[in-house]
Amino acid sequence: MQSNLSNSKRNKELCEKLMERAGFSCVSVGNFHAPFDIMAEKKDRVIIIKAVSNIDSVTPDDGRALAKLSNFFDAEAYVVGETYKNTKMEERKVFTRHGISCISNDTVEVMLYNGNFKHARKFFSENVEIDGSELKRLRRLSGMSMKQLSKSSGVSVDSIYRYEHGFTSASPENLEKLESALSSRLEVAHQISASAKANRYENGSISIFDIDREPFNKGFKEKNRFEFAELADMRTLKKWSEFYARFNEVFDDIQFIMTDASTHENIFGIPTIKKSEIYSISDEQELYDIAAERL
Known about the structure:
It is built from 11 helices and 16 strands. By secondary structure, it is of the alpha/beta class. The protein folds into 3 domains: 2-126, Trna Endonuclease, Chain: A, domain 1; 132-182, 434 Repressor (Amino-terminal Domain) (Orthogonal Bundle); 199-294, no CATH class. The longest helix has 20 residues, at 2-21.
């Protein structure tokens, strides 16, 4: 566990250095838990990074949170890791896990200098997450050994073994061959990005987003962005206030602490707002006015 944490920290530091070298302004999470580790911006291009040791550690909740953040900030979101299952992440390989593009540190640099994955597809080989248990079940149901399925599909026995045991992701070509041989779908389906976009409400000219994870539980945007966090203990709020100060040097947003019945106009310099006030806001000027009054 300690090794994984140190590897994740090393990945985070390396990603930050690579992005700064590429001209991005970065804000990193240092002393509290968040669904991301780095947010960076360069000429309106926003990148969100979650740095891990093993891609397997990324949970469906992490995927949902990153998708919602990506949606709100109009950002690219990536999970950066060293390994997937028991296999080292390959350079210029990308695959989707829980709705998020997963890449290696080596691939980060390619992505930074050649645009996002969508625009830099020619530089990458895109892999997909395959359902190994379903592959094994269907193969056995068809009465085939791995060798027989290999002959039928044109996929090597070694690859079939690795897919069934969850040791690696599959190329789109191999996935198509296996699905054709077994007449069934094998790719792991992810609907997380779509569900993230569903949690959006229109209130006047402001779009309201439910992000659901600290330090940004809700987000409002019109021409500018405003983030809202749930009330927490004072120690946590202090950490958030320090993060927000660094964050706003790059993004120039405004944050609020949501309360049920606030007795303070601000906490550690963060303006408060009653939850009952939020959905009555009709435009961003009202939020600017509230922030100005309570700072």
